[in-house]
Amino acid sequence: MSEKMLSLPTKVGVIGCGMVSATYLKNSFNFKAFDIVAVADQRIDAAQARAEEFGIAKACSVEELLADPEIEIVINLTPHSAHGPVALSVLEAGKSVYNEKPMAVHLEEGRQMLALAQKKGLQVGCGPDTFFGGAWQTARQLIDQGKIGQPVAASACLMAFRAPSSNDDTIGTKSGEYVNFYRTNFFDFGVTWSFDRGPYYLNALIHLLGPIRRVTGSAKNTWGEQEPFKDLVKTPTHFAGVMDFESGTIGTLLISSDIHSTSLPHIEVYGTAGSLRCIDPNNFGGAIYLRQSARDDFVEVDCAYGYNQNSRGVGVADMATSTRHQRPFRASGEMGYHVIEVVHALHRASAEGQHIELTSTCLQPKPLPLGLADWEIDD
To answer: What pLDDT score does 2 carry?
Structure first.
C-alpha cells in the first residue's frame, strides 16, 4: 500500500443510533485514523437525527449502509441481542466490524464471526476500549516494570443495585432509561451486569495480566427467588468467580446487581513485592495507587500517558491503523470472544459445580508507547 493510501482515514459507518452513538460520533472528529461517513438505524428518524446533530453526510437504512462500497469498517452499536446477527451481516457484506461490548450474547455467534472474518480476510474488533486509557496504561507499566514483583492474585468488584419492578417499563432502573436504551428487560440473559459491565473488568484484567485459563464460581438469582419476580428475573444477578490466568495469577471476581453499597476497590493486583489499586474500568483516567512492600500505605502514582478523558472510539482508531499497517490491534475480536466465554463459564461453573476449562485464548494487548498524544495511535 502506498504512503498516500496509508495516510488516508478509513471510511467508517455506524449501525445503531442510540445513547452511546453520540459519544462515538463526537469523539470521531478527533481521530485522524478514521472518518464516520454514514449512520444507520432500524428507525430512519433516529439516524437522521444523529446525522443532523453531528454533521454526518449520510443517514440511511442498514441495508443501504451495508451496500456502500466506500465503507470499510462498521461500528455496531445495536442492543446486545443484535450484536451477533448484525455483525454477521456486516461481514457477509464484505466489511470489517467493531462491536460494542459484549461481542455477542451467544458463543456460537462469536465463533461464527471470527470464522467468517478469517474466511473473508476481514477484521473483528470489540469494545470496551477503556483499557487504552492513561490510568490503565500506567497500571500496566508498573506491572511490566516489576514494581509489585510477580503478580500473584487480583480482585475485581462490580457491585451495584438494580431492583426489578412489576412494571416492565422501569425494570432495574431509576427512570426506565436503561431499559429503553436496550429495548429489553435488564434481567434478561445477556443484558445483566455480567454481560453489560463485566467486559470492562475482564478487558482490564486481561490487559494487565493476560488471558484466562479456567473459571469456577457460584451464581445466585436473588430476585428470581422472590414474588412477584419469579417469572420476570430469568438469569443470575449475583456472581462470585475465581479465574486462573495462563500466567499463573489467580483472580477473584464479584459481579452483582443486588448490593446497595460497598467500599471494596474496583480492581486490585497483588504481587510478591507490592499491590496496585486501580480505578473503575468504565473510565479511561483516574488515580492509580501503588503500595510497595517497604511502604506503610498506598501512594498515588503520576500518570505518564494520555487518553485520560472519555476517548471511546480509540479502539476503532487502533483497528483502522492496524489494518492499514498489517499489525495486531488491541481491542481484538479474539479478546472479545475470550471475555464472553469467561462470562458463560461463570454461569456454567455454578450450574455444573465444577471448574470450566476455557477453549479460547487471546493476545495480551500491547501497551501504548509513551509520549503518544491524545487522539493519536501508533503505527
So the answer is: 54
